[in-house]
Write a structure and sequence with these properties.
about 230 residues, elongated
């Protein structure tokens, strides 16, 4: 039986007041008054309020949709690939929502350089499971930082090139590994690739990514260095 994401969304919204002290309308007002307009900044702000990444992403998308539900009453909407686990509730502040799959953004939200949907890439992204939303964010931000970047599935990797490969993303449920050559610029963030996974990649350095806050300006700087821009 397929998951009814419209029903799950309605349950999430209905439980907001009890679990967080604010209903949907109050959260929409809070988001408008949080001082952020960038979508990633809003998601990060929501995470500091106690939401896990994917629920923060969902709430931000409702805000971006004018306060209207994404799935509404349409149970036929295409759901994210991962099946969510039931959230654990608490009476002492926002509940630590279990990560669910962030719905893929509509085509109009994709930048021209974002990776095209390909079955091979989708298969690899599915390997990230709960970190799939973060993997989507990593690829999208690389696409924005490197216009014209190409994304291809090769073995267990999503290889990124322009056109020569300059990085490779290895999705997994515990952490995303981004392999590249950062040189001296990556000394404070990157690790030697062979110390993490001896057979993973031909690139010498690796970034371990498990939080959206790590996709910052310094991350984009390292990506540009890896691409030799």
């Amino acid at each position: 039986m397929s998951t009814d994401y419209a029903e799950m969304e309605r349950d999430f919204v209905a439980s907001l007041k009890e679990d967080t002290g604010r209903d949907l309308a109050a959260w929409m007002i809070a988001i408008r008054g949080c001082g952020h307009s960038d979508r990633n900044a809003i998601i990060d702000w929501l995470r500091h309020q106690g939401f896990q990444f994917s629920w923060a992403s969902w709430l931000e998308r409702i805000h971006h949709n004018g306060g209207r539900l994404i799935y509404g009453g349409d149970p036929g909407s295409v759901p994210p690939p991962a099946r969510p686990r039931p959230p654990e509730a608490t009476r002492h502040g926002p509940r630590p929502f279990e990560i669910v799959q962030r719905p893929s953004p509509p085509p109009r939200e994709l930048k021209p350089s974002a990776p095209p949907p390909r079955s091979g890439i989708e298969r690899l992204l599915a390997d990230a499971k709960g970190l799939r939303p973060l993997a989507d964010l990593v690829l999208r931000e690389i696409g924005r930082a490197i216009p014209g970047a190409e994304f291809n599935a090769q073995g267990s990797f999503i290889v990124i090139g322009k056109p020569q490969p300059f990085a490779a993303l290895l999705p997994s449920p515990k952490a995303l590994r981004l392999y590249a050559s950062f040189g001296a610029a990556g000394i404070h963030r990157a690790k030697p690739a062979d110390a993490v996974n001896k057979s993973a990649s031909t690139f010498p350095d690796v970034l371990l990514l498990d939080d959206a806050r790590s996709i910052d300006e310094d991350f984009l700087r390292l990506i540009r260095i890896a691409a030799r821009l």
